[in-house]
Amino acid sequence: MSSDTTAPSSAPAKTGASPLLPVDEALARVLAGAGPCGHESVPLVEAAERVLASDLKARRRQPPFDASAMDGYAVRATDAAEAPARLAVIGEAIAGRRFDGTVGPGQAVRIFTGAPVPQGADAVLIQENAERHDGGEIAALEPVRPGQHVRRAGFDFEEGQILLTAGRRLDFRALSLAAAMNHPVVPVVRRPKVAILSTGSELVPPGTIPGPDEIVASNHLGIAALVTANGGITLPLGIAEDDIGTIAARIREAIESEADVLVTLGGASVGDHDLVAAALKSENVKLDFWKIAMRPGKPMMFGTVGGLRVLGLPGNPVSSLIGGFLFLAPLVAALAGRGAAAPVPEEGRLSTAIKANDTRRDYLRARLSRDADGVAVVTPLGVQDSSMMSAMVEADALLIREPFAPAAEAGAPCRFLRL
Ligand code: AMP
Ligand code: MG
Fold it and tell me: Which of 170, 236, 330, 398: disulfide with 342, CB 3.0–4.6 Å?
């Protein structure tokens, strides 16, 4: 994508001699220029967790009138400045139906929470502090201050006030506020459309009966879940056999459907049947990188064609999902207007010794616990094979081992990503 980079050539390295692209550099390239992918208007009832595309002004003031905050009696504070004070009850104000008259000297109106405070009254005597007498009289047992238990009109917000700004996620609080501001429809960032294509002649959909040499495709489901969790929508492109023409046709489908992102699963390596890179090139996808200094997940591709970003993940399930977690999730979040919230490493201590690392950054599946001081203790799982989904699911975290990290003793500090 970028032409100004000083990083290693993105051309496929047949010799393996050129250094692999560091993970952070790869992530920076994937996220380069990724921001909100567009705008649309949606009914507020469908806007939960969407991101506001523009500032939102209140369409009314809240509360719209001076309102009682308590059940009790609307009074003139001067009449009950000293207790006890006797007042004549002349009517009733309830939420949704005001008292139309005026409260004069020595008078009170029975009032309930949310009811408009009647004209003339300027405070509410709570009913716990009132004693009812026969003949429609009450005695105020406590002095009343002006404005007591009254929510002034506009106390919460005024008409025209901007209360929610562009970029704000409509979480459960913001959504209710937008409703109180009386917005039936809100402008939000469009959900990025992510096409997902599994490749492999051995793959069949989950739930079907595989032939003797076939396996069940599984990665697309985890990848789809990452997409929706980060604010995207998915366009499932199914399974393509390892045939360049078939894969290319599905890539065209992604381009023609104006997807924002295409994720390919499998076929990313350099074997005779790894055809994704060639198929992408045949559809004019400009490959930015093909291999990165990461384990699992070295054969990972990124490229663009027009407005479409293409992420080519390896087929091994653990590699696919870690690639999705590290690269796709932040990309989708960025396009959805949530900001590219790449997972942030936390600090912990190793529970066991680990050996020195080679040229690639490792993401080891690990369990987490806490020591007596509350420090996170990280235990890498015994099996780290990139095909082992059972171990992936058992893991709480990915232990990060930097390229060329020296051997480390039990108790040594370490960094990890929580899963
Ligand atoms: P590949 O990256 O195509 O060389 O695939 C590597 C390994 O992952 C092979 O054992 C494939 O059978 C397996 N694999 C590829 N794609 C998927 C998938 N979508 N779901 C599960 N396993 C896969
Ligand atoms: Mg394959």
Answer: 330
72 lines ligand 1 (CB under 6 A): no
Residues of the chain with CATH 3.40.980.10: 23-38+190-335
Is the beta carbon of 270 within 6 A of some atom in ligand 1? no
| Nearest CA residue ID for atom 20, ligand 1 | 217
All CATH 2.170.190.11 domain ranges of the chain, comma separated, are 67-151
Ligand nearest to the CA of 265: 1
Instruction: Give the 3-state secondary structure of residue 398.
Output: strand
Q: For the chain, give every residue range classified as CATH 2.40.340.10.
A: 346-418
> How far is the C-alpha of 253 from the C-alpha of 237, rounded, in Å?
8
Ligand 1 site, residue 201, Cβ cutoff 6 A: no
Q: What is the mean pLDDT of residues 157-181?
A: 98
Percent of the chain's residues with pLDDT above 90: 93
- pTM of the prediction? 0.91
Return the pLDDT at 19.
84
- Whether 264 lines ligand 1, by a CB cut-off of 6 Å, is no
Instruction: Judge: domain 23-38+190-335, CATH 3.40.980.10.
Output: yes
Q: Tokens 């009138």 correspond to what residue?
A: 65
At residue 13, does pLDDT exceed 70?
Answer: no
Cβ of residue 200 lying under 6 Å from some atom of ligand 1: yes
**Phi and psi, residue 43, nearest 5°:** -60, 145
Region 67-151: CATH code: 2.170.190.11
Q: pLDDT tens for residues 235-260?
A: 999 999 999 999 999 999 999 999 99
Q: What is the pLDDT of residue 2?
A: 34
Centroid of ligand 2 to alpha carbon of 203 (angstroms): 9
CA distance 358 to 329: 27
Q: Which ligand is nearest to the CA of 215?
A: 1
Instruction: Say yes or no: CB of residue 282 within 6 Å of ligand 1.
Output: no
At residue 25, the 3 state secondary structure works out as helix
Q: Radius of gyration (Cα) for the chain, nearest Å?
A: 32
Nearest to 393 by CA among 367, 359, 371: 367
Question: What are the pLDDT digits (tens) for 133-148?
Answer: 999 999 999 999 999 9
- Across the chain, what does the average pLDDT equal? 95
